[in-house]
């Protein structure tokens, strides 16, 4: 799956990693619902770090369609809330 981190670029991520990413996504969703801004910041950073660590960066000139778009590391709670689906940021 091709994942875009807004403001950074794209990575190719194996579907096998989505179990771990979904745990972080669930935690992020709970922190957003409770208004825990510190927890939100920490978990968003952990989610993006996990995608970077497990994914393979695509070249800057690659223009692959992104199947999943994640917010920039400095995104606000409100900006991320607008990006959410019923499943959170990561479907499944």
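Q: What amino acid sequence fits the structure above?
A:
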């Amino acid at each position: 799956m091709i994942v875009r981190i807004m403001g950074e670029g794209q990575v190719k991520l194996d579907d096998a990693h989505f179990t771990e990413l979904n745990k972080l996504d669930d935690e992020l969703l709970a922190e957003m619902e409770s208004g825990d801004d510190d927890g939100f910041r920490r978990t968003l950073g952990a989610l993006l770090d996990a995608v970077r660590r497990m994914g393979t960066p695509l070249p800057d000139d690659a223009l692959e369609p992104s199947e999943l778009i994640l917010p920039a590391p400095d995104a606000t709670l409100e900006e991320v809330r607008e990006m959410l689906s019923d499943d959170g940021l990561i479907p499944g």
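Q: And what stands out in the fold?
A: The chain is about 45% helix and 15% strand.
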